[in-house]
Amino acid sequence: MRSLILAVSLIAVAAPASAQSPNRGNADLQTNCAGDALAFCAGIDPNSRQMDTCFEKNMSKMSPNCRRAIDAYKGAGGK
């Protein structure tokens, strides 16, 4: 019984965390900008306007691959 309660508790804790996966951007942005996001915008919710602001502020420092992915994303109308 104790292990069942522990298992249910772990599922309850893990479910909200998995539901918070990024829902903005695309695979290219996530692949090419993950390191830049950690380096320049750590601790900011990736789904927030604050992340956009952080990227805009640090655009000149972003890696070339990330900047290309951002340009392609914007060029495709944000898709």
Fold and architecture overview:
The structure is a single chain. Helices cover 67% and strands 0% of the residues. The chain has 79 residues and is mostly helical. The protein has one domain. It is globular and about 25 Å long. Mean pLDDT is 78; it is low at 1-21.
Specify the number of helices.
4
Shape: globular
Strand content: under 5%
User: Regarding quaternary structure, how should these chains be classified?
Assistant: single chain
Instruction: Give the low-pLDDT segments.
Output: 1-21
Cα radius of gyration in angstroms: 17 Å
The percent of residues in helical segments reads 55-70%
Mean pLDDT: 78
Series of H and E elements? HHHH
Helix/strand structural class: mainly alpha
Quick overview:
By secondary structure, the protein is an all-alpha fold.
Indicate the topology.
Layout: H1 2-18, H2 27-41, H3 49-57, H4 64-75
Helix pairs in contact: 2-4
Give short descriptive properties of this protein.
79 residues; 0% strand; disordered N terminus; 4 helices; mainly alpha
